[in-house]
Design a protein that fits this description.
About 75% of the residues lie in helices and about 5% in strands. It is mainly alpha-helical. It has two domains: about 400 residues, Up-down Bundle (Growth Hormone, Chain: A); about 55 residues. It has a two-stranded antiparallel ribbon. A hairpin with a 3-residue loop joins strand 1 and strand 2. This is Major Facilitator Superfamily protein. It is a multi-pass membrane protein. It is found in: Cell membrane. It comes from Williamsia maris. Keywords: Cell membrane, Membrane, Transmembrane, Transmembrane helix, Transport.
Length: about 500
């Protein structure tokens, strides 16, 4: 079997007996000018189909890997480059600013300019920026390149997700593809610590370089397997330039303000001014979207309860997890004296659990409603966070950390595929890029805000670090993280109850 690319791609599938299974090729053109080919079965995918999924999932894996991996190398980078803690945070924050600030634009660009073109171009930029960042030793240059990589990821992620949702039919085929795709993303976050610990022993430059060659290999494979489609005819009337500038500006400013606030103060005039400026741009954005003929964000999409719930849950899930990981990383290295490799191996069971879940999550998504999976996953997160509060000097790994790590792995394995599936379910092909951009924006903004919040809590504690004990303010910060996740569980339960009530009005999407 092979892939035919003319004006549309037909994926031929065969089941285990060798007989052709049901295949449907869409005849309509989506909003990005792409003619969608839809796989209507989850069985017997061809080699080309699997390679396509590996390329798309691999790009998401690199994104998660990059975020977690570099964090482990920060102490070594600081020692070699003479960067203090406030400067080092920009190695991470630069990436988050680029990623969170441009995701909406990236999603819309993939719809307008073609998903294949946007995905491949952004993946190339990501790879080149990775290689260059490993070769320079100028602080500002490294931060700038991290920002560029974040922007590139902001285009590859929504483009990749929308390629999946416009290629695999909603139902078993899409659930299988999305479960593999999202588990790869979750695995990147989980295994990034392990890779980071190992590569840091070679040198911190290795953590910056590693994604480059991998991105090049994915690019070469992507050129061969991502279907070519007619280039859409785009003019200035199709582009919501005002919406792009105001939304991106609002997101960039709010992320910058939150990241900067722990250093200058939450009530400082500059911080307040940044939040006011962000709010003003947000109001301007909403006004533009309500009036534009081809808006960047069709406001009507927010009438979908399940879509809004998925985005809020994504922000809660990742915001709580990444901020908890940040605190535990400091605790293990600064208080307990663990090496980067030891710390990485301590987190390994969560990554292995997430990877193992890839073999069955598609069937789970078929049989269990996504709000239920989100509720269970967030409950696992809450249990893990609260269990960690038992940590005392002298406790063994199997007692104080392993139960938490296993619960976090379970939470990620359930939540990550569920929020991505729910965020794009029922959305038209023309707006898949928008929907995927929204959910990934929620993830990044949630992470940026919660890291800033827990940093502010620990920075304001004023406590003296005692070996073996939690860093100052850490119990309070973990309690805040737990409460946030509990609110996420409550929201999911409310959605479950509402969906079970009889309704005569269809959900607007």
């Amino acid at each position: 079997m092979h892939v035919h690319i003319v004006l549309r791609m037909t994926l031929e599938l065969s089941d285990s007996s060798g007989n052709e299974t049901d295949v449907r090729t869409a005849s309509s053109v989506d909003g990005g000018g792409a003619v969608s080919s839809v796989v209507t079965t989850a069985r017997g995918w061809s080699t080309a189909t699997w390679v396509l999924l590996v390329v798309l999932a691999g790009a998401l894996f690199l994104d998660g890997l990059d975020v977690s991996m570099v964090g482990v190398a920060l102490p070594s980078m600081g020692a070699d480059l003479g960067m203090d803690q406030s400067q080092l945070q920009w190695i991470v924050s630069g990436y988050v600013l680029g990623y969170g600030g441009f995701l909406l634009l990236g999603g819309r660009a993939s719809d307008l300019f073609g998903r294949r073109t946007v995905f491949l171009a952004a993946l190339a930029v990501f790879g080149v920026a990775s290689v260059i960042s490993a070769l320079v030793e100028v602080n500002s240059a490294i931060v700038a390149l991290r920002f560029i990589k974040g922007v590139a990821a902001a285009f590859t992620v929504p483009a990749g997700l929308s390629i999946i949702t416009t290629t695999f039919a909603e139902g078993p085929a899409r659930n299988k593809a999305l479960s593999i795709y999202t588990v790869c993303g979750a695995s990147g976050f989980s295994l990034g610590l392990v890779f980071g610990g190992l590569l840091t022993e070679v040198g911190w430059q290795a953590t910056l370089l590693f994604p480059g060659p991998v991105a090049v290999l994915l690019l070469i494979a992507g050129i061969k397997v991502i279907p070519s489609v007619p280039r859409p005819a785009v003019n200035w009337g199709h582009l919501d330039v005002g919406g792009a500038l105001t939304s991106t500006g609002a997101l960039l400013i709010v992320v910058y303000a939150v990241v900067r606030a722990p250093d200058v103060g939450w009530a400082a005039p500059s911080t307040v001014g940044l939040f006011v400026a962000s709010a003003a741009l947000l109001v301007a954005f909403l006004t533009i979207e309500a009036r534009h003929r081809n808006p960047l964000l069709r406001l009507g999409i927010l009438r979908s309860l399940t879509l809004v719930h998925a985005n809020i849950s994504a922000a809660v899930m990742f915001g709580s997890y990444v901020s908890f990981q940040f605190l535990v990383t400091l605790y293990l290295q600064d208080s307990l004296g663990w090496s980067p490799i030891a710390m990485s191996l301590g987190f390994l069971p969560a990554g292995l659990l997430v990877v193992a879940s890839a073999f069955g999550m598609d069937r789970v998504l078929d049989r269990v409603g996504t709000p239920i999976l989100i509720a269970i996953g967030l409950t696992a997160f809450v249990a893990g966070y609260l269990l960690f509060l038992r940590a005392q000097p002298g406790m063994g790994y199997a007692n104080f950390l392993l139960p938490t790590i296993l619960l976090l792995g379970l939470g990620f394995a359930l939540c990550f595929p569920a929020v991505n599936s729910q965020a794009t379910a029922g959305v038209s092909d023309a707006e898949q890029g928008l929907a995927s951009g929204l959910v990934n924006t929620s993830i990044q903004i949630g992470g940026a805000i919660m890291i800033a919040v827990v940093t502010a809590i620990t920075a304001s504690s004023g406590g003296t670090q005692v070996p073996g004990e939690m860093i100052g303010g850490m119990p309070t910060a973990i309690t805040v993280i737990s409460v946030l996740s509990m609110l996420g569980v409550a929201g999911s339960l409310a959605v479950i109850i509402r969906r079970r009530r009889p309704s005569t009005t269809p959900a607007a999407v």
